[in-house]
Design the sequence.
């Protein structure tokens, strides 16, 4: 039997076994995969939640406890469990940098500060996720050539191992390090870093800026412009001396470090690779150093594009309410949209699929999710739709619905103008119009998560979903809580047929034919569901 082709990204689509694939699911807590015994029940729960794609981890500390001695047995255990359940893995390499610290570097690296020097921060900025008197986290310097050499060697060994240990490609993508950058200062002040700061800006970066000026993020273009868009000079001469200039400097060097790892890894096994970013600037973190300076944040995405061509995409971790703006920021210059970490807010997943051609979406702490959660419902409804959604994304036949302000929205799709509104608000008004009492407000939605250590995550009360134009006046709608009215010009269309059902690998499987009273709310209000409608166009 011929081997299946390697997973690949092509034309902003993820291909697994040569077919379009949506990497929908969740990321495990950081330490879960370090114990196969702990993971035993977790795998069963994920399967019950309809999770097909698990973002899991491999630690440099666990994989190379002594220099040159590699042990990837924890990875093998994950691959075996995924194979048993026909699931796929996106594997995170927790190497030298995780959330702007170096706690996953092996002890032999962290203990040798002469060979592997630490970053130096002025410390003028308040450090997040700590408290007075807390023991410090190790932070290695990205400017250390010995650190790069060691991290790259270990990552290449991992990819070489996957090439033989994972013949059916349970691992479909790899994340290189995690939320890299520097906290507490806008740039590293170590001796190695200071020497790099005084050096000329690499010509590769300046040529990239000039060649792509019309497509640059406006913040980066403005930063370059204020110094006269120089074609040569030191970092201070080309970009200035404030935190914005420091962020560009750090972004180039972090990106070049990660590029070296990705390029070495792909020489062993050419899987799609990406790295992820801690968002910034954001509320409470307005300047680089309050969020990790040098990571793939919005302002410096183009620096990363120039410095790290081996990455297939740069991905945002979303823990802020402005998801629409974040997705738009990263849907930039052909960058495929993939969200590796996010809150349990199921509506955001649908917006990413419908508006930004997302190839995947993952919530963090997936093992905390309830098996009957909104997320599990959504994953169940979407499980057979990879090819349908991917084709609709490529052909512009899909739109997202996310009524986060309660106001109606108008969508143009498939030759129709579609007005989408919150169903419960419409039903309340219809009852009042005939003199009946409106129903009381619904009770709070249950948490999406469960367990004594899980953070509460209220269910998503917004109306959300996707609409796919299938042609011949037929549309498929997946979602919750909204009503869609279709028109051409000033004339409304008429519903011809409405079917409940779901898409499977074998095709559409119809359920009830909805008519009469059931057409007052054809998209479910209490759960995520799928319907197919056929319209009678206005005459």
Sequence:
């Amino acid at each position: 039997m011929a081997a299946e082709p390697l997973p690949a990204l092509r034309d902003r689509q993820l291909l697994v076994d040569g077919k379009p694939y949506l990497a929908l699911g969740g990321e495990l807590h950081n330490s879960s995969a370090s114990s196969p015994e702990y993971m035993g029940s977790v795998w069963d729960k994920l399967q019950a939640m309809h999770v097909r794609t698990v973002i899991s981890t491999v630690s440099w500390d666990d994989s190379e406890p002594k220099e040159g001695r590699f042990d990837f047995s924890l990875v093998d255990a994950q691959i075996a469990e995924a194979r048993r359940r026909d699931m796929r893995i996106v594997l995170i390499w927790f190497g030298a940098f995780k959330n702007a610290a170096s706690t996953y570097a092996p002890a032999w690296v962290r203990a040798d500060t002469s060979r592997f020097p630490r970053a130096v921060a002025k410390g003028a900025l308040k450090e997040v996720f700590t408290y007075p008197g807390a023991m410090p986290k190790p932070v290695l310097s990205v400017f250390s050539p010995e650190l790069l050499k060691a991290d790259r060697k270990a990552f290449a060994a991992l990819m070489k191992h996957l090439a033989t240990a994972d013949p059916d490609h349970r691992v479909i993508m790899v994340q290189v390090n995690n939320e890299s950058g520097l906290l507490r200062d806008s740039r590293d002040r170590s001796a190695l870093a200071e020497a790099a700061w005084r050096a000329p800006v690499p010509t590769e970066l300046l040529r990239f800026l000039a060649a792509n000026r019309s497509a640059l993020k406006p913040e980066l273009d403005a930063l370059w412009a204020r110094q006269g868009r120089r074609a040569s000079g030191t970092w201070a001469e080309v970009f200035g001396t404030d935190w914005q200039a420091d962020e560009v400097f750090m972004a180039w060097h972090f990106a070049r470090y990660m590029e070296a790892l990705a390029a070495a890894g792909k020489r062993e096994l050419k899987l799609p690779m990406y790295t992820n970013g801690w968002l910034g600037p954001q509320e409470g973190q307005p300047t680089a150093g309050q969020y990790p300076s040098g990571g793939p944040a919005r302002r410096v995405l183009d620096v990363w594009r120039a410095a790290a061509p081996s990455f297939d995409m740069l991905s945002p971790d979303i823990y802020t309410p402005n998801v629409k703006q974040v997705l738009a920021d990263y849907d930039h210059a052909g960058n495929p949209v993939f969200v590796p970490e996010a809150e349990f807010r199921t509506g955001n997943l649908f917006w990413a699929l419908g508006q930004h051609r997302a190839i995947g979406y993952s919530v963090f702490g997936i093992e905390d999710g309830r098996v009957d959660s909104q997320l599990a419902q959504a994953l169940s409804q979407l499980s057979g739709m990879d090819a349908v959604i991917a084709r609709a994304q490529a052909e512009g036949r899909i739109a997202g619905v996310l009524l986060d302000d309660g106001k109606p929205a108008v969508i143009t799709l498939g030759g129709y103008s579609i007005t989408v509104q919150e169903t419960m608000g419409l039903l309340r008004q219809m009852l009042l119009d005939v003199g009946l009492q409106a129903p009381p407000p619904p009770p709070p939605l249950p948490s999406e998560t469960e367990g004594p250590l899980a953070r509460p995550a209220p269910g998503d009360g917004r109306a959300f979903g996707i609409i796919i134009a299938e042609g011949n006046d037929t549309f498929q709608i997946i979602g919750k809580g909204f009503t869609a009215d279709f028109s051409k010009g000033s004339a409304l269309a008429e519903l011809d047929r409405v079917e409940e059902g779901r898409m499977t690998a074998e095709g559409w499987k119809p359920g009830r034919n909805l008519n009469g009273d059931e057409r007052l709310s054809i998209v479910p209000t209490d759960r995520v569901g799928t319907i197919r409608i056929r319209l009678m166009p206005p005459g």
